[in-house]
Each structure stands twice: as structure tokens, then as C-alpha cells.
Specification:
The protein has 167 residues and is an alpha+beta fold. Helix content is 16%, strand content 60%. The longest helix is centred in the first third of the chain and has 27 residues. A ten-stranded antiparallel β-barrel has the order 1-2-3-4-5-6-7-8-9-10.
């Protein structure tokens, strides 16, 4: 029995892609749940970091994850934060709503227990339109959200947010 070449290629691709999709769905499911913790946020490079307390609820469905919550700094400052992330094979994309309340685009991939994103801001922040964001799963009960941006004066990478959460 002869199998057409395009059928053989398609079947071969399906064998390789199914495990990748299952791996990403399993990883995203492991991030699902209620999270709370503390950290620091710098609203502008060069200013003092603000200590924050955060709470998030993450819901995974297949190869997508919706994370929503809020961070509170001092007594009066409260900001809603959310992300809608989707995996397509080993690539990730999504929308991030940060403290500015404007949507920003996410694109990246997962390495081990970390999803590494490039953030494309909807308006210029710290002198440019991009930053790096990492969502890192730490053990069974830990999650770290970290954002770095380039200092427009020195060109060095600066941590602009670092939030550590637990279940």
C-alpha cells in the first residue's frame, strides 16, 4: 500500500506536535489557581521601587491561560493586572493589561519552567516600546513574575518589577 507523500509528512508532523501541545497544556494547567505574594514595582527607571502586595487568579484551559488580579502599594494605590496567554506549539502569545490600563502584546516561548516574553507596550515606556517579562514556575507552589527594561541613559537592563507568589 502506497501512502502519498503529503499524507506521510502530515502524519509525521502530527506525531511531533501532539506531545508539544500536551506539554504546554500541562504546564499552563500547573500555573492555574489562586496566587498571592509580594514584590516591588518601579514605575519609571530611576525612581524608587514601590513595595506591592498582589493577588492573582489563573485559569488554564487547554493551551490558554487567563491570569487576572491586582497589586496594591502603600495604602491607596491599587492596580488591576491581567494577561491572556495562548500557546501554539512551543510559541506563546497574548495580551497583557498592566498598571497603565492599556493592552500590550506578548510574544515568546517557554524554556524549562519559564515563559519568556517580549512585551510590546502600546505607548512608550522608559524611552522605548519593548521590555522583557518572565513568568517562572518555582516548584509546586511558587510563581515569579519579573519584568526588565533597558535604562535609556545607560543601556543596562533594569528589573522594573519582581513579584513572588505562592499558592
Amino acid at each position: 500500500m502506497k501512502i502519498p507523500l503529503f499524507t506521510a509528512v502530515g502524519l509525521t508532523l502530527m506525531l511531533f506536535l501532539k506531545p508539544a501541545l500536551a506539554d504546554e497544556a500541562g504546564f499552563l494547567k500547573s500555573i492555574g489557581g489562586k496566587w498571592s505574594g509580594t514584590g516591588s514595582v518601579t514605575t519609571k527607571i530611576g525612581s524608587r521601587p514601590l513595595n506591592v502586595t498582589c493577588k492573582f487568579d489563573s485559569r488554564a484551559r487547554g493551551t490558554s491561560l487567563i491570569m487576572s488580579g491586582q497589586c496594591r502599594g502603600l495604602v491607596v494605590i491599587r492596580r488591576a493586572i491581567s494577561a491572556d496567554i495562548r500557546a501554539n506549539g512551543t510559541k506563546y502569545s497574548g495580551i497583557y493589561m498592566g498598571p497603565s490600563g492599556r493592552p500590550s502584546r506578548l510574544s515568546g516561548s517557554r524554556t524549562g519552567n519559564s515563559i519568556n516574553f517580549t512585551v510590546r507596550w502600546s505607548k512608550e515606556i522608559n524611552g522605548d516600546l519593548t521590555a522583557q517579562m518572565t513568568v517562572e514556575k518555582i516548584g509546586a507552589k511558587g510563581l515569579r513574575l519579573k519584568t526588565t527594561d533597558k535604562d535609556p541613559k545607560t543601556g543596562r537592563l533594569i528589573v522594573t518589577s519582581d513579584i513572588r507568589l505562592i499558592r
